[in-house]
Structure formats: C-alpha cells, structure tokens
Design brief:
Chain B: Its main location: endoplasmic reticulum. Chain B: It is a multi-pass membrane protein. The structure holds two protein chains of two kinds. Chain A is built from 35 helices and twelve strands. In chain A, helix 1 packs antiparallel against helix 35. Chain A is mostly helical. Helices cover 61% and strands 6% of the residues of chain A. By secondary structure, chain B is mostly helical. Chain B has one domain. Chain B is 74% helix and 0% strand. The longest helix of chain B is centred in the C-terminal third of the chain and has 33 residues. Chain B is globular. Chain B starts with a helix and ends with a helix. The chains are: A mainly alpha, B mainly alpha.
C-alpha cells in the first residue's frame, strides 16, 4: 500500500505531536505534583459512635483529675486555684455543648512567625564555638528560656516540606497538609484557601483572631480574621515596614483582651536574606532586633501572667515558616531551607521537668548534645510542620482540619496539657507521678485515636473523589495498620474498662497509632512532594529527540523544491520502516528489562509508570532512529552538491537574514533560562522582532521595493507597545479597584468624553476590522455560494458584538436605563447567538474547501487565500468578543502589522519563475520566525501574562452565568490562546500564498511542500522555546522563583505547544483538502 | 574580482594618514565619554545627560572639522559652507531617526527621559550619520550603497561606513543586559547602550583600518 504525500505529512505531524504529548506528560508527571483540594470541613458534631474512640479520657473531669492528681500542682497556689476554678468552667462549656473534639488546653495563643528563620539563627548544631559565624546563635533568648525555664519552654527543630516558599508554607501550616504546585481546586483563580484549615476552624468555633504583618495571610484568609493589620510583602528591598508595623500593633494588643489567637508575621529576615544574604550586617541587626522582640513579648506576658490576669494561661509560639540558604534563597528542599525553629513557652508554671527524650520516631537530633555538656543542654526534638495544624487544633480544642495528615505532637501537647510524658530512662518510682503519667497517656492516646480516625477519613475521601488517588496496595497497607491500632485499643477499652489500664498497654496503643499516622504521612509525602527525576529526564530527552526530528523534517522540506529529480514520498515519512523498528525496539527494551529483572533476582522494584517509560523509550528510540538515520537524501552526490551550493554560495546573501532569524530565535529561547528575561519577555520579543524588521528594511532599501511596508512594520510595532503599556496600566488601576470593570475610562471624565473615547477606541476599530474583512472577501475571484453567505454573515457577527457592548456600556454609563429583561437577553443570548453563527460559518468554509476542485494553480492559491481570510475573519470575531474592549484597537494595529509582514514577503520571492524554476531555495525561516515572535507579542498585547492570576477569567463567562468545566474551559482557552496561537496559525498559510510564484507545470505538490515547510518551521520554533523552558524548569527546580515564575511559564508554554500541535494538524487538513485536477 | 582591478584610490593616502583617520575619532570619543567628564567630576553612570552632552558636542565639532577637511580634500564636497550646511542638516535628522529606532527597540519613550535620549541621539548621530552626511551629501544612491548594502569604496567611505555599522551593532548588543535584575546603575538607559556603542565603534575603526591597509597593499602590488 503506497501512502499519498498528504497522508505522509499528516502522519509526520501526528508523530511529532505524539512525541510532544509523551514528553510533556512524563515531564509534568515528574515535575508538577498535583493534589486535589477537597472542599470538605470538619465539624464539631462529626464525632459520633462510629469514630470508635474512647471518650472517657476526653471527658473534662478526666482532664481536671489530671490536674488534681498531680500533687505538685497543688503546691502552686495559682494552679490550685485553677484546679478549683477550671472544672466548672470547662463543665459549663460541656453543658452548653460548646466543647468540640478536644477540651481546650490554653486560653490564648500568641504566634510570632519570623519568615525564613534558619535553625542555626537560634541554635547552631554541632558546630564548635570558635567556628561560629556572627549570625549563628543570635536568638539567644530562646536558648536561655529552655535552659532556665525548662519546665515551661521547649525548642523544636521545625521541619518544613518543600516547596519552601512563604505562601505554600502558610498553606501547609494551616491546613496540615502538603501544598503542591497545582492545588486543583474549585476556586478557579482566587488564592484563598478553600480547604479546611485551622484558621477557618478557629473562626467557625468562635475564637477571635488578630493578625498583623505579611499581607499574604489576608490573601489566603480574606474573611476569617477578627482584626487584621496587613502590610505589603511585595517589596523585597524594604526591610522594616512590615516589622515596624507589626511591632506597632503587637504590644498594645498584648494588653488587650479582644483576641484568642494573635498572629504576628515578621518579614525582615526573609527580605534581608534576599537582598543582602545571610552573611551580612543587616541580617545580624535584624536578628538582634528579633531577639529583643521575643524578650519583650515574654516579659510582657510574664507581667500579666499572675493568676487571674490576662495571660495566666497563654501559650507563646515563636517559629519560622522555612529556612534559607546562605544566599538568602529558599523554595527548595535542602536541609538549610527546610529546617527552622519553633519555640513554645507557656505562662503557666509547670513544676515537673519535661522528659529529656524525644519520641522515638523523631529522636534523631544528635547534634545538639555533642559533648560533655550533655546534662546542661536541653534536648531539641524534631517537629514536622505537617503536624502543626492538628496539634494547634488539639490544644485550642477545635476540630482537626479535614485534610490534615499530621499527628498531634506529643512533646508540644505534653508541654501545654501540663502533664508528664513517660520516660523509660529516668526511674519514676513515685506512684503518683506514674499515675499522672498514665492519665496523660490515656488522654494522649484517645486524642491520637481521634487523629487517626480523621486522617483515615481524609484518605478514604480523597481516594474516592479524585482522579489521581492513592494506589490500592498502599491503601491496603495503611488500612491494616489502622485496623490493627483500632482493634488493639478497642480490646483495651473492653477488657480494661473497669480496671486500670496499664502503662505498657497504653504505650503500646500510642505507638500503634503513631505508626499508622507516620505511615500515612510518609505515603502522602511520597505521593505529593517528590520530584520524579527519572520522568523529568525522560521527558526532556523525548523533547530533544522531537527537536532533532523536526530539524530533519524542516531540512527535508526545504531541500525538496530545488531538487531536479522527483523524490519518492516515502522519504517524507517512512511509515512502514518506522513501525517495524519501533516495534522491534519496544520488544527489545522490554526484553532487556525482563532479563535484568530476572538476573537481579527481582531486587529491582519497578512501578507501572517506570515500565511504561521503558516501553515508550524503546518505541521512541526505534522510530526516531529510523527517521533520523535513514539515508534518504543520498540519491546522488550531485544533487547534494547542488543543494549545498544553493545554500552556501548563491543564496548566502538572501539567506543571511534567515540565518540571523534562526540565531535570534535561539537567543530568545536561551534567554528563557534567566528569570529576568522571562519577566520581560515582551521586551525581548519586541527587540528581536524589531531587529528582524530592520534587516527587512535593509533588504527593502536594497531592492527599492516595499520600503513603506517595512517602515510601517516598525512604527506599528511601536504603537502596539504603547497600547499594551496603556492597557497594562489600566489593568493595574482596575485591580486597585478604582474603576468598575467594563468601563472604558475612569469615572472622573465627563460623559461625553467617555462616549467619544469608547467610540474611538472600541466601536470604530471594531467596525473597521469587520469592514476590512468584508471588503477583502467581496473581492474574491471565485466567489462560491458559501463564501457569499459568509460575506453576509460576517458583518452581522461584528454588528452583534457591537450591539452587545453597546447595551453594556449604556448601562454602565448610566446614560439610559435598559430594562432588566432586555439586558438579560443581551448578556446571555447575543453571545450565544454569535457563537452559533461563528460555528455555522466555520462549517460553511470547511465544506466549501472540501468540495472545491480547481483546474489551475492560480485558482488553488486564490481559494486558499479566500478561505484563510474568511476563517481569520470569523475566528477573529470570537476572539474579539472574548477579549473585550481592548481587543478592537489591538486588532486593527496588529492586523496592519501582519499585513505589512505579509507584504514584505514578496521581497523574498524568487525574482523570475522561468529563470530559477528548479534551483530556487525556498527559505521561510525569517518570515516564520517573525510570525512566531509576532504571535508571542500578540499574547502580551492582548493583556495576557504567563501567570495563573493573569488568566482572564471574566472571558470565560461571556454569554454564560454558570460554570461548566468544559464550556468555560474552552472559552478561557480561546481567550488565552486565541490571539497568540489560533489566529497566527490560521494566518500562517498566507505567508506562503503571498510569496508563492506560480509554476508552469500544474501541480499542487510544490505549493503543499512549501506550506508543510512553514508549518513544520513554526512548530519547530515553538518546540525550541518549550524545550528551553522545560530544561530551565528542571535545572531551576530548587530556585527561589520556580513556583512563582518558571513553573507558570512552563505550564503555559507546554499547553501552548500542545495547542499548536493540534491547530497545525487542523490547519494542514483544511489547507490540503482542495485538490487540483 | 572586477572591482579590485581598477584603482579605487586606496593607496592615495599614506599609511599614516589612514592611521590618523581611524585613530583620531576613537580618541576623541574616549576623551568625550571618559576623560573630560571625569575632570569635571562627572561620569556616565551618575550623570548620563551631562556626560553625553560633553561627548556629543566634542564629537560633533571634531567630526565636522575632520570630515569636512577630508571630503574637501577628496573633492567630495565643493566648499566649506557646503560641509557645514550638510552637517547642520544631517545631525538633527540622524539624531531623530536613531532615537526613534532606539525607542522602537524598547528604549523608554516617556518624557522624563528626554534629556538623556536627546544627548544620546546627538552623540550617536555625530558618530554614525554626521560623517556620512558630510562625505556623501544628498546622494541617496550613495547612502543606499553604504548603509543598505554595505559596499563602501575608498578609504574615506570605509572609515565612515564600517565604524558606523560597528557602533550600531555595538549599541544593539549593549541593550542586552538591560532587562537583567542585577540592579546595577549601568543597566539604565542609555548607559550600557553607550558603552556598547563605543566598543562597537572602536572595533569598527580597527576593522576598517585593517581593511583599508589590506586593500591599499593589494592595489600597490597589482600596480607593480
């Protein structure tokens, strides 16, 4: 079976697109960790019988007993007083039904967060005194506290999970989960946390919260705070505004009684690190300031801590949200970035020394007690940030956040609940102590039981409701652990309900619960936070393979035209051979894998994903090998020489611009490796586009033709830039809330001005665009019936857009009251009508193309041009409708610019067809590079940015009020990629028809070859950019800005590449459908 | 090739004259950008407008004197007044066009930068356009030949054309570091562009000098 030329090219494009899909799928699987946010919340009344935990310990009297049975407590008058006072208080809570999952253990909590607090700012581990740097050990108040007041202060090494950026950490701290890059939520853009979190729980349970400092908190929790003093965190160079703002409000607040939880978030150390680095004077100054702050706060609390005073039962938590490297970067997962400190200090005096041992699972802190000072130095336990939310919830007595997978930390909980933890080392002979320890253990084990139930509930729910849940085998292991712990404790409670539960069995229960919780956290961590380096490397490798293939394809297509001999079609895409060798290699790789597996005795464990990767790898290697190394052009050395001569000697000058263009686009791709160039990509793109424009102007001046077009191209570029700057500044104003969206100008100008302004910038350009398309189409040489229909439908479409905006404007300008029913009709029905009309027109055009048969190549060219123009006009309408008011003006300017670009093409056409019929080197690189850069420029000019909050969500709701993931997704995609991908790719065809010189022999092959060349070239350019950003993202995956800047850019480019592939297939299909007879 | 066989007058000048023709303008530029401003306590980074003004004025006067003299001598210009008239005409037009091109490339167009941009335009116009204006006059074909096709003929045209190309390409490269977030004062417009322009100009003078000497040698050896 011999395939036709067209089919082969189509298969080639399919093959390349397939490679892209494979590469991006694997890379994103390794890189973008996804977790679905469940919008479920824990409630007080969630606890019913099927929880199966032993409530007796959660009973308030039990807690009261704990206090009472500790004899030492009675010695303290205040504590004694509390002992009498407290049970009734809590009992009243109980009676009123206010007590939630756990009884509250403290009245107030003060949380001071020092952003980017390295652990060694507080206590350097295992570094001898003389080697310490000035910034180490700077917060000495914390160490003094744990030494001198060891009964009421504890220091923890607070361990964060990457990504260690403030936003993600705050999410993690408050939800008790692992935030990943894409938290797929229902929020559709707003940064506010939709998951259950400790802040919402506190707010729902009537705790009053006061916040001061970093304004990220308010972005995450817009309405939960009782009172907030946010300060902008945006300006990294500003070391003091936020800190001074916090200090200004912190100390007055400490004397007030209008809060239960006080949060102060300091940013100075973070900013000092970013700007000056850790080893700087500013850093030391900041740390000294913080030392003072902590001292002052503690003394303030201490003054108020007398019995019955404001802070008689307050917990102070001083913590960092993440660490930083010596350069001040953070975001990654190195030890210095994830390790930060947590100090807990209560105003309530405890008389018993705290245990000098950490819980077994976290007792890996050897560094601190290094030498003979072992007795003097208190131990520092590890504390996972994952555990913070649930521990805080347990302490404050609110339901544990639904999605939390942490466990209640025994040390911190023990510190606050004022009871001992059992210690095996120290001989506790005293039966009283032993007894109180057992009481505490009972309490702790029942809290852990609750904790286990809650984690289990979350995992079950998550697996049920999300696509990428946990694997069944993993869940089974967890389930066994859970059942084990549950049945053990149930047994305990049934057998020993009357008798005293022994210490050892309690310990046993605690350890079983702990085991389950640790396993659950480990599984979640594995699933949600680890980059999969193999997948990433594989994805990048496949991208590079596809780059090679595309290079070769472009080369084949650019050398075919001048070939004197006819080349067999199979050179373009040797399908049979490729299938064969792909199959062979797949079998081979699978075989090798099995062999290795067998010989290693099954010691290698391989997941399904890895096996798929190996198989795909085999297929990719096999097929690409055949394509790349098939010696398809060595038919004769003579021909090869002709080609080389064409390229290097005769056409060197005309190729100079083409080579320059390719170099420019490579430089542009390389510039993506730097964050500053990504940030200012619009300028970079404009720079190169203008450079190529100048080169074109040079050529035009040489040839003395098209000078005007080349000059106007540059001028229009400038106008476009001014326009986009203007819209950008307008967007800023819109964001600051001065203007209601939908209004073209600020409300301060007069009505007349507003009207004329919108008339000039919105309606006139829109009508102009519609008119331009209409006249262009009416000049068609071969007006078919469908084309005539479109000539009538297109103006109607544009007029409908006009009407739609006009009614909206009338309402907004309050010029005339429009009845509600009409407004509703206009808002919903007109856009839907436009969508339908556009669909109809597209179908008409495609049908037209399908049926057209023409006899001459001139006719073919005309038909292509007409069809492309009609399609452009139709699709332009929908893109304009979605883009909104700023669209028409940009459309006019960029349309003119595109026209200049197309006009310039005739400069590059071979001078005379008869003369250079068989030698003409058709080189579209310069034109395609300009077209590609122009398309990127359009992306920015239409008000888009490479960031998720830059998505224009309003566009998704043009004509619709309700959210539907597919419908609104398509509209949003049309808005985002319409101007920058859809229209340029449709217009790509015009590049060829503008330059194409008619040949004497009637064959559409030549035309189609050129067309395929431009398509492949465009695809190649997109792939180069996407490959570079992928490599960049892989290299910089620990970079400070990876989640803020590189990753969104990568997502946009990767999706853009897939969209490009898809559109190119469609484009190729529709342009090659008419045939020549 | 056909061009080389006939005498284009490369050997009309002695090597010393060729050297001076290519050596003096960079020296004056160096004096204008670095030496003179430093004497007055100015430098390009902190006082771009003042420094550029000094360099520009110096370069304008020097270019007028030197290229008028040269083109009068080579009979490319009928009189002194003509030379002055040509320079008066070409300097502002060149400055305007070059500033406009810089703005299209992405230089700031807001009015607050107008002084810097204007003096930068004066300087680059004095380097790129003014010499060509004096030497070529109003001949559009010559302009086209020199700047669209880069085909200079004779030592004088070489010394006009190649350094001008060098200066423009240098300025183009000089714009590269501008978007980087190093927060250095020299990344501001037009400091790095001026540095790039000066470097490109120096390189262009050297290349032009070498080419002139080589062409002159070839001519002499052919005559022998």
């Amino acid at each position: 079976m011999e395939l036709k030329f067209k089919t082969r090219v189509l298969l080639l494009i399919f093959y390349i697109s397939g490679l892209h899909v494979i590469a991006i799928l694997f890379f994103t699987r390794g890189f973008l960790l996804t977790r679905n946010e469940l919008p479920l919340f824990s409630h007080c009344n969630d606890l019913h019988d099927n929880v199966g935990c032993n409530y007796t310990m959660l009973n308030v009297t039990a807690l009261g007993n704990t206090f009472n049975t500790v004899p030492a407590v009675r010695e303290n008058i205040c504590e004694l007083d509390r002992g009498y006072r407290e049970p009734p208080r809590i009992a009243s809570h109980l009676n009123s039904g206010n007590i939630c999952w756990t009884p509250p253990a403290v009245k107030k909590i003060v949380i001071l967060i020092f952003d980017a607090l390295r652990f060694d700012f507080v206590a350097p581990s295992a570094i001898p005194e003389d080697k310490r740097r000035p910034w180490m050990d700077r917060l000495q108040v914390m160490q003094r506290l744990i030494l001198e007041e060891s009964t009421r202060a504890r220091l923890f090494k607070f361990i964060a999970d990457p990504p260690t950026t403030s936003l993600q950490r705050l999410k993690g701290l408050t939800t008790g989960s692992l935030p990943t890059f894409i938290d797929v939520g229902n929020s559709f853009g707003a940064p506010a946390i939709v998951e259950d979190n400790i802040i919402s729980q506190l707010a729902n349970n009537g705790k009053r919260m006061k916040m001061m400092g970093d304004d990220t908190w308010l972005a995450l929790f817009p309405s939960q705070f009782h009172q907030a003093f946010p300060f902008p965190s945006f300006n990294v160079k500003d070391l003091h505004t936020v800190d001074n703002g916090v200090l200004e409000h912190l100390f007055p607040a400490l004397h007030e009684d209008d809060w239960d939880v006080l949060i102060g978030h300091f940013l100075g150390v973070d900013h000092a690190g970013h700007i000056f680095g850790v080893e700087s004077l500013q850093m030391v100054e900041k740390l000294d300031q913080y030392n003072k702050v902590v001292e002052d706060v503690i003394s303030t609390l201490q003054n108020e801590s007398a019995c019955g005073r404001l802070h008689d039962d307050t917990l102070l938590l001083v913590m960092g949200d993440h660490g930083q490297t010596l350069n001040g970067d953070h975001g990654g997962g190195t030890a210095e970035e994830v390790e930060t400190a947590l100090l807990a200090w209560t105003t309530r005096e405890q008389t018993h020394p705290l245990p000098d041992q950490c819980e077994p699972s976290s007792a890996n802190n050897v560094g601190f007690r290094s030498s003979q000072e072992e007795q003097n130095k208190p131990i520092i336990c590890d504390f996972q940030q994952l555990d913070f939310a649930v521990t805080l919830a347990a302490i404050l007595g609110v339901p544990f956040p639904f999605g939390s997978i942490g466990k209640v930390n025994p040390e911190l909980f023990g510190l606050v609940t004022g009871s001992l933890q059992p210690s095996k080392d120290t001989a506790l002979n005293s039966s009283e102590v032993d007894c109180s320890a057992a009481e505490w253990l009972k309490l702790y084990s029942s809290i852990l039981c609750l904790n286990c139930w809650q984690v289990n509930r979350y995992l079950q729910q998550y697996s049920k409701s999300s696509l990428n849940g946990f694997s069944i085998s993993d869940l089974d292991i967890l389930k066994n652990l859970y059942d084990d712990a549950r049945s053990f404790s149930n047994e305990q409670s049934t057998t020993a309900s009357s008798a005293r539960v022994t210490m050892s069995s309690l310990l046993d229960a605690v350890s079983r619960y702990t085991k389950y919780l640790d396993a659950a956290a480990a599984l979640a961590r594995f699933k949600w936070t680890r980059f999969n380096d193999e997948f990433m490397a594989f994805g990048i490798a496949v991208l590079f393979v596809s780059l090679l293939i595309q290079l070769k394809a472009v080369r084949i297509f650019s050398v075919i035209p001048p070939m004197p001999v006819k080349i067999e079609d199979s050179y373009i895409f040797p399908l049979k051979e490729m299938i064969k060798s792909g199959y062979n290699f797949a079998v081979l790789s699978a075989g090798i894998f099995v062999l290795v597996y067998v010989f290693s005795g099954g010691s290698i464990t391989v997941s399904a994903g890895q096996f798929v990767m190996i198989l795909t790898g085999g297929i990719v290697i096999g097929t690409s090998k055949t394509y790349l190394f098939r010696r398809n052009l060595q038919t004769s050395k003579k021909i090869y020489k002709i080609i080389m001569r064409n390229v290097w000697r005769e056409d060197l000058h005309s190729n100079f611009v083409g080579i320059l263009a390719i170099i420019f686009s490579c430089i542009h791709a390389c510039s993506l490796l730097s964050n500053s160039f990504i940030l200012r990509e619009q300028q970079v793109v404009t720079f190169f586009l203008v450079s190529l424009g100048i080169m074109d102007l040079r050529t035009a001046l040489q040839q003395n033709s098209k000078v005007l077009q080349a000059t106007w191209f540059l001028i229009l570029n400038f106008i476009l830039r001014i326009l986009s700057e203007a819209t950008l500044s307008k967007d800023m104003v819109l964001q600051s809330g001065d203007i209601k969206p939908g209004r073209p100008v600020s409300p301060y100008t007069s009505l007349l001005q507003q009207l004329s302004f919108s008339l000039l910038t919105v309606y006139a350009p829109l009508i102009l665009v519609g008119y331009a398309f209409m006249t262009k189409l009416s000049r068609s040489y071969f007006p078919t019936r469908h084309l005539k229909a479109i000539q009538h439908l297109l103006p109607v479409t544009y007029a409908a857009i006009c009407l739609y905006w006009l009614v909206e404007d009338l309402e907004n300008l309050q010029l005339k009251a429009v009845p509600e029913s009409i407004r509703l009709f206009v808002r919903l029905q007109i856009p839907r009508g436009i969508y339908l009309c556009i669909l109809l027109q597209i179908v008409l055009i495609l049908l037209d193309l399908k049926r057209t048969v023409t006899k001459s190549e001139v006719g073919l060219k005309r038909i292509f041009e007409d069809a492309s123009l009609a399609l452009l006009g139709v699709l332009n309408a929908v893109v304009l409708l979605l883009l909104g008011r700023q669209g028409p003006l940009v459309a006019v300017i960029s349309g003119l610019e595109a026209w200049c670009l197309l006009e310039k093409q005739s400069m590059y056409a071979p001078a005379c067809e008869s003369q250079r019929d068989d030698k003409a080197q058709i080189d579209y690189s310069s034109a395609t590079v300009q077209w590609n850069l122009f398309s990127i420029q359009l992306f920015f000019c239409t008000g888009h940015r490479f960031s998720f909050d830059g998505l224009r969500y309003a566009a998704a709701f043009v004509g619709f009020d309700h959210f539907n993931i597919y419908r609104q997704g398509i509209l949003l995609g049309l808005d985002t990629f319409g101007a920058s991908h859809l229209l340029p790719i449709i217009g790509l065809q015009l590049l060829v028809s503008r330059r194409h010189v008619l040949r004497r022999n009637a064959s559409d092959r030549f035309y189609k070859i050129q067309f395929s060349q431009t398509l492949l070239m465009f695809q190649l350019l997109c792939t180069v950019a996407a490959t570079f950003i992928t490599v960049c993202v892989a290299i910089q995956r620990r970079h400070l800005m990876v989640w803020g800047l590189f990753a969104p850019k990568f997502v946009f480019d990767a999706i853009g590449l897939l969209v490009t592939d898809f559109l190119l297939v469609l484009e190729f299909l529709y342009t090659t459908s008419p045939t020549l007879y | 090739m056909a061009v080389d066989t006939q005498n284009k007058g490369y050997s009309r000048y002695s090597i010393w004259k060729v050297f001076l023709l290519h050596f003096l303008p960079p020296v004056v530029l160096f004096l204008g950008i670095w030496v003179l401003p430093y004497r007055q306590g100015l430098n390009l980074i902190e006082h771009p407008a003042e420094t550029l003004r000094i360099a520009g004025v110096l370069q304008v006067f020097f270019s007028i004197v030197m290229y008028s003299f040269m083109s009068l001598k080579e009979r490319r210009c009928p009189s002194v007044w003509m030379a002055i008239w040509r320079s008066i005409l070409s300097l502002p037009i060149g400055a305007f066009v070059l500033i406009f091109i810089a703005i299209i490339f992405g230089a700031p167009w807001e009015l607050e930068h107008r002084l810097k941009s204007a003096f930068w335009g004066q300087l680059i116009s004095a380097i790129v356009v003014l010499p060509a204006g004096i030497v070529l006059g109003g001949s559009w074909l010559d302009w086209q030949r020199l700047f669209a096709s880069t085909r200079p003929q004779g030592v004088l045209e070489y010394s006009v054309c190649i350094p001008a190309h060098g200066a423009v390409i240098g300025a183009w490269f000089g714009a590269w570091p501008m978007p980087l977030d190093w927060e250095r004062p020299w990344q501001e417009w037009p400091v790095s562009v001026t540095y790039g322009m000066a470097a490109g100009y120096f390189a262009g003078e050297i290349i032009s000098f070498i080419l002139s000497v080589v062409k002159a040698r070839n001519e002499v050896s052919k005559e022998d």
